[in-house]
Amino acid sequence: MNSKNQQEDYKYGFYTDIATEDFPKGLNENIVRLLSEKKEEPDWLLDYRLKAFRHWLTLAPPDWANLNIPAIDFQNLYYYSAPKQKKVKDSLDEVDPELIATFEKLGIPLNEQKRISGVAVDAVFDSVSVGTTHQKELEELGVIFCSISEAVKRHPALVKRYLGKVVPYSDNFYAALNSAVFSDGSFVYIPKGLKCPIDLSTYFRINAMESGQFERTLVIADDDSFCNYLEGCTAPQRDENQLHAAIVELVALDRAEIRYSTVQNW
After folding, report:
1. CA distance 251 to 14
2. CA pair distance 68, 70, nearest whole angstrom
3. In angstroms, rounded to a whole number, what is the distance separating the alpha carbons of residues 259 and 230?
């Protein structure tokens, strides 16, 4: 890990020197298809992405009020960047030690011996979730807490039912972009009548330069349930541009409550 801060008063400004797998720069229909193929997604989700992408092509970027910023070159970004993995990991013990060290330095310990008591964490690095803590304990209560990519495989009916229902891809320019190329994020389902006994949290770390991180998080609280969800984001201090464009959908069913907070420390 290169821990030299480029700006001393920003303690999260370090970057992690790790081998990555990157798609070619630029955004087109082939990139959307490649992303869906990489994630082994069902046809319905690829169709959703393609509809969003085609709609995005008809839109113009927003003209932000009171901001004087250069126009974003959406063809000069990497839309997928992920740490190279030698094999599919079965547990957090098999995650690359460099990634474990990175999140520990950010104050998010993933090792079982050092985990934060009373908080379950899904750690997302660039385009992928690298691990989720406390899953076994939560599953025993009927709580689903995993990456959105894992949820698509394990709980497709729930994802298909609620994805895009709060923020449809037609809502705005960045909603369409995110819906076309979202990479990872968290999925939460709280069963009826349950007050989740531990807090849930996702930490998003951008590391790769000239990349886009497109978080997609979906939290569903069934009838008469409750959860507390906290999200955090940081990135290195770089001269090159990076983009974070997220969608978080919160679905609170009858008499349910979701307490959502986000801390974005860029």
Report:
1. 35
2. 7
3. 8
Quick check: helix, strand or coil at residue 174? helix
Beta strands in the chain (DSSP E): 20-22, 81-83, 119-125, 128-132, 144-147, 186-190, 199-205, 212-213, 216-221, 226-234, 243-244, 247-252, 257-264
Q: Model confidence over 111-124: pLDDT tens digits?
A: 654 555 578 888 88
pLDDT at 5 (0 to 100):
44
Residue spans per domain, the chain: 20-87+96-264
> pLDDT category, 3, cuts 50, 70, 90?
very low
Mind listing the pLDDT tens digit for each residue in 190-249? 999 999 999 998 888 878 778 888 999 999 999 999 999 998 877 777 767 788 889 999
What span, in angstroms and rounded, lies between the C-alpha atoms of 226 and 244? 28
Q: What is the pTM of this model?
A: 0.86
The angle formed by the CA atoms of residues 152, 158 and 161, to the nearest 5 degrees, is 110
Question: For the chain, how many residues are written?
Answer: 266
**CB proximity list for 51: less than 8 A, separation 6 or greater:** 169
Angle between helices 43-56 and 29-38 (to 10 degrees): 150
For residue 195, give the DSSP letter. Answer: B
Nearest to 78 by CA among 183, 233, 203: 183
How far is the C-alpha of 68 from the C-alpha of 207, rounded, in Å? 25
Which one has a higher pLDDT value, 119 or 51?
51
pLDDT above 60 for 45: yes
Q: What are phi and psi of 191, to 5 degrees?
A: -70, 165
Q: Residue 216 burial (CB < 10 Å; 0-12/13-18/19+)? A: buried
